[in-house]
Amino acid sequence: MLLCLIILPMIQLSAVIITFNEEQRIADCIRSLSDIADEVLVLDSNSTDRTAEICRELGVSLYSKPFEGYSIAKNYANQLAKYDFIISLDADEIISSALREQIIQFKSKASQFDAASFNRLTNYCGKWIHHGGWYPDVKLRIFNRKWAKWEGVVHETLKLDSRVKVIHLRGDLMHYSFHTPEEHKRKIEKYTTLFAQEAKLKKSKFSLLKMIFGPVYKFIFMYFIKLGILDGWTGLQIARLSAYSSFLKQKKLKQLTQK
Fold it and tell me: Is residue 94 a contact partner of residue 173, using CB atoms and an 8 Å limit?
């Protein structure tokens, strides 16, 4: 009896990263992709530090374009990629060894309508955060660009064709978020401004109730309900700044609508 073995070709994967002044992080991110990506593509928003230089040294496909928004940048970069299957990372993210093995297996089995998600574990000021709603932080990051598109201004989300099947992979994406609380505060200032601008475009109205009670609810939810208290001082800091972010969103929306 003859056995006919059908071997499916392994999909080829383009890693796509968008950057701006990421000289401290980008090299580790790129190196973590060495065994799984058939191409690494970086779209840089005219960084003023050594980001572009480091990318050239590591031999990635490097492009530059002024920043127009996260979804716009990611969709543009996806179209520049050599292969249809994309793994989308931020410069402060690293593929763990356990996740790397899972991605290699996915590449050998995936059909054109498959996508993959995995958990993201965040390091905040040197401490890994397992509570407060920050873990498991499920991210959908591997997809076929033919059937997917990024949408949104502040927290971009990936919209998939209804035919796409999402497979959840084991292993964590390691996220090195903030080295100091001050760095967190700077990002809050940036993101709350983007939130207010997007809310105004959508004709959302300022809410005094949200500005007063939103921060209180946010703190209680993260610190007590989601057990951020178990992360010690770091959990308290995260809950406190997240509450402040909730307040700032409404404050900036009020300022914009008044103008």
Answer: yes
Q: In angstroms, rounded to a whole number, what is the distance separating the alpha carbons of residues 251 and 247? A: 6
Instruction: Find out whether 231 and 132 touch, Cβ atoms under 8 Å.
Output: yes
- Going along the chain from its start, the domains and CATH numbers come out as 13-178 (3.90.550.10), 181-258 (no CATH)
3-state secondary structure of 33: coil
Q: Which residue type sits at 176?
A: Y
**Whole-model pTM?**
0.92
User: In this predicted model, what pLDDT tens digit does every residue of 182-207 receive, in sequence order?
Assistant: 999 999 999 999 999 999 989 999 99
Residues 198, 105: Cα–Cα separation, whole Å: 39
| Per-residue CA distances from 250 to 8, 191, 211, 229 (Å) | 52, 12, 5, 26
How many CB atoms are located within 10 Å of the residue 55 CB? 25
Q: Which residues pair with 158 in a beta bridge?
A: 150
130 backbone dihedrals φ, ψ, rounded to 5°: -110, 0
Rounding to the nearest 10 degrees, give the CA dihedral for residues 94, 20, 11, 173: 20
